[in-house]
Amino acid sequence: MSIFSLVTGRPGRSGFGSASTAEEVTAGIDASHLTAIITGGAGGIGLETARVLALRKAHVIIAARNMKAAKEAKDLILKDDENARVDVLKLDLASLKSVREFVDKFIALDLPLSILINNAGVMFCPYQLSEDGVELQFATNHLGHFLLTNLLLDKMKETARTTGIEGRIVNLSSIAHIHTYQNGIKFDTISDKESYSDKRAYGQSKLANLLHSNELSRRFQEEGVNITANAVHPGLIMTPLFKHSAITMRILKFFSFFLWKNVPQGAATTCYVALHPNLKGVTGKYFVDCNEVEPSALATNESLARELWDFSNKMINSLKA
Ligand SMILES: NC(=O)c1ccc[n+]([C@@H]2O[C@H](COP(=O)([O-])OP(=O)(O)OC[C@H]3O[C@@H](n4cnc5c(N)ncnc54)[C@H](OP(=O)(O)O)[C@@H]3O)[C@@H](O)[C@H]2O)c1
């Protein structure tokens, strides 16, 4: 998709473009046979994603760290459609313990699982460590989602096998994946304070989201599993994500207003990739404005994806209490 398409909203090959909303790209889709988990589904793009998936009759599990916001999100969705199936479960991605507790609670519900949307994220935080002592943007945006996905994989595989319904994993990456550290991921100094850059650490975590979905996709194909994994850039949407750079971003938005989307448009690509029948069997791809585009060379580097996978596994094992 070109800047021209972004600004004008002209649809791409999928028939959708930057101006398409989540409701538009899922119009007529019946998702009543699907259960979906959406991390960070209590606010921003995640809430709109949860609302629209529920509108299409999916059973939606909002995974959120702030339970008050999650309950308000649930009420808002039920106000829209009193028959919506929405549940909320606590999940703090910056705590590996919380990720494990979330999965235990979800498994105890004995529900199937076809859709996992790894949406939650933080951006441009001042240097900070997670509960497990890992740099916060890497910990929240990548490591928490990496563990969450791994712990849910058996459930997703079982659902795909017993129902014949394709599973889909959608990772919220960003165009910012191109602005990372040299060599992409600074494995040796991942939580190092001296070399920390709030912008590059965000880019690194968003590159990790892309590498993660590509490696998942490669493994699913190798195993012959009926699950796809793709990454998306939702566009530029003014949400609380920008709280650490609010003034700069508002000034930037003033001069580049034509590049920005509203929240319903911002949730469109995620909902398209999660639900649309056009994408049956499509895996290991990156989508912007509901159309497939090429990410950076680092993002398609298979050995980097494997290295990140092994690194993340080792890190999680070393952090086990
Ligand atoms: N907005 C954009 O322009 C843009 C552009 C490119 C990519 N993205 C990506 O899109 C995704 C959604 O962004 P957004 O704009 O909707 O941001 P947002 O409004 O700030 O929403 C992010 C959500 O993630 C949750 N979250 C943050 N840390 C968490 C943690 N440790 N555990 C569980 N949940 C946590 C937040 O919960 P709290 O309310 O509790 O903080 C919030 O619900 C992010 O992955 C972001 O990187 C956004």
From TrEMBL:
Entry superkingdom: Eukaryota
UniProt xrefs under CDD domains: retinol-DH_like_SDR_c_like
Family per similarity comment: Belongs to the short-chain dehydrogenases/reductases (SDR) family.
Full protein name: Short-chain dehydrogenase TIC 32 B, chloroplastic
Species of origin: Turnera subulata
Encoding gene per record: TIC32B
